[in-house]
């Protein structure tokens, strides 16, 4: 049991606290169960108490109490992360940010929001002035902006705007520190990356300034192809097409469309499908691309009907995995960036090499100024050894894997220590209380 918990709770009397064990257990979880490797490591981890601050002053109060009693604090948005990012490894306080959900101000191209604002809720307000979030995960309806910046990377919109890590996609953050005397500081410019994708180990984000994109009338379209490489080449060509306004270019080859029950009547058996979000104004030129690659438009929903029926964005990115797992829970996934090769040779090789064991699923994104295929392949899981073999094979051939089967920040994507993040943590969290156990550099510094 966490020592001094009662003292902490009495200091925080008056705040919105949850101590009922079932609720606390529920709010200690995320979507780590997509990984059969993480499941046994994380399934029993729980916090001691959930605290739901209403404003920054309350966050400062909680931070002070945690520092006083040396109790760990793990920040939580909506808990939709896939790598156990918000799972408390050492108990303590779970700081649920969902009550801090205001859009504080907005103007053309820019908004200032609280971290607990859901991405879809932000769009709902900014669209009134003709703007929207530049990119969002497929969990857009439930995920928070603080959680996306703290633990996410990119998604719908990334085909045009790149990823969160690209300069210009996050302008400023306010963070509460866990020093002897916690304070709120503002980070701008490259300093934002001290806390972005740091899994809440480097401060509690209480406010963010985010750039916006023009909100086009997005049409949702599915195009089917009779062979995989035509679908993939169509995706690459469309993603590279400068005149085409696009938000999503996702390729789900056969047999993946079989997992999409609600769309079944539209998706011809045995075909390879492209899921697209395109500005309505680009429909005519889209037809030319479809013709070039001998595709067939099998589904179309106008921007006006966007809120009705299935949203195709919720079949893309890691929702593809979600639907497949709802049919076959033994399926897991990988995250891969393929090289900048317009002929897609390595991708074609992997498609044939692994066959049905590693089902290709492509998400095109802009990376370093050019469109590249990323893949969230669906893997028919057998053993951890085999999974690692699959990863090693990809890496040996020049595909970059962002491993989703680890909860350590460095081991997932960067593969190396981020010195700026480590130094910042030494300053703002000297007792290592923020989400302990997630930053390898910090663990190794302590010789653990
Ligand atoms: P949480 O899971 O609650 O938290 C994520 C991390 O951020 C945690 O480490 C937490 O401690 C930290 N954090 C939360 N709030 C704060 C704060 N205020 N200050 C500091 N740190 C904070 N991700 C993508 O990037 N792209 C995708 O397309 C995508 N698709 C997904 C599809 C499915 C079906 C699922 C289950 C997940 C997907 N994800 C995707 C992962 C996840 O949904 C997103 O990253 C999402 O943005 C996380 O938001 P959240 O509010 O749920 O964050």
UniProtKB/TrEMBL annotation:
The keyword Transmembrane does not apply. Pfam families: FAD_binding_4. InterPro entries: FAD-bd_PCMH, FAD-bd_PCMH-like_sf, FAD-bd_PCMH_sub2, FAD-linked_Oxase-like_C, Oxid_FAD_bind_N. Keywords: FAD, Flavoprotein. PROSITE patterns: FAD_PCMH. GO terms for molecular function: D-lactate dehydrogenase (cytochrome) activity; D-lactate dehydrogenase (NAD+) activity; FAD binding. The keyword Flavoprotein applies. SUPFAM superfamilies: FAD-binding/transporter-associated domain-like, FAD-linked oxidases, C-terminal domain. Residues 43-215 form the FAD-binding PCMH-type domain. This is FAD-binding protein. It comes from Myxacorys almedinensis A.
């Amino acid at each position: 049991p966490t020592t001094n918990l009662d003292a902490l709770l009495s200091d925080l009397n008056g705040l919105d606290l949850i101590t009922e064990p079932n609720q606390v257990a529920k709010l200690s979880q995320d979507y780590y169960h997509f990984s059969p490797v993480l499941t046994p490591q994380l399934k029993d981890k729980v916090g001691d108490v959930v605290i739901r601050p209403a404003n920054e002053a309350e966050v400062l109060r909680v931070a002070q109490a945690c520092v006083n009693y040396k109790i760990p604090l793990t920040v939580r948005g909506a808990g939709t992360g896939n790598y156990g990012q918000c799972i408390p490894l050492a108990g303590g306080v779970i700081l649920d940010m969902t009550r801090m959900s205001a859009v504080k101000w907005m103007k053309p191209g820019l908004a200032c929001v609280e971290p607990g604002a859901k991405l879809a809720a932000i769009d709902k307000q900014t669209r009134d002035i003709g703007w929207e979030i530049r990119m969002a995960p497929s969990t857009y309806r439930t995920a928070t902006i603080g959680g996306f910046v703290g633990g996410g990377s990119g998604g719908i919109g990334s085909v045009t705007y790149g990823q969160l890590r690209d300069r210009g996609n996050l302008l400023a953050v306010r963070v509460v520190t866990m020093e002897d005397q916690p304070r709120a500081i503002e980070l701008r410019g490259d300093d934002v990356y001290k806390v972005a994708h740091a899994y809440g180990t480097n401060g509690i984000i209480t406010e963010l300034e985010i750039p916006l994109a023009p909100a086009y009338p997005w049409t949702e379209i599915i195009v089917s192809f009779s062979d995989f490489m035509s679908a993939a080449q169509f995706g690459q060509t469309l993603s590279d097409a400068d005149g085409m306004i696009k938000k999503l270019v996702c390729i789900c080859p056969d047999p993946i469309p079989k997992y999409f029950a609600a769309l079944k009547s539209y998706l011809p058996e045995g075909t390879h499908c492209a899921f697209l979000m395109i500005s309505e104004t680009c429909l005519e030129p889209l037809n030319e691309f479809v013709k070039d690659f001998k595709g067939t438009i099998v589904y179309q929903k106008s921007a006006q009907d966007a809120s009705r029926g299935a949203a195709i964005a919720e079949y893309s990115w890691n929702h593809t995995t979600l639907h497949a797992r709802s049919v076959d829970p033994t399926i897991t996934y990988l995250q891969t960036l393929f090289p900048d090769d317009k002929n897609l040779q390595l991708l074609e090789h992997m498609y044939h090499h692994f066959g049905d064991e590693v089902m290709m699923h492509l998400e095109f994104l802009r990376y370093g100024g050019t469109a590249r295929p990323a893949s969230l392949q669906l893997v028919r899981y057998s053993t951890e050894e085999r999974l690692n073999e699959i990863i090693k094979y990809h890496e040996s051939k020049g595909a970059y894997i962002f491993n989703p089967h680890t909860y350590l920040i460095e081991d997932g994507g960067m593969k190396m220590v981020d010195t700026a993040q480590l130094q910042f943590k030494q300053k703002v969290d000297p007792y290592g209380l923020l989400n302990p156990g997630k930053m390898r550099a910090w663990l190794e510094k302590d010789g653990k």
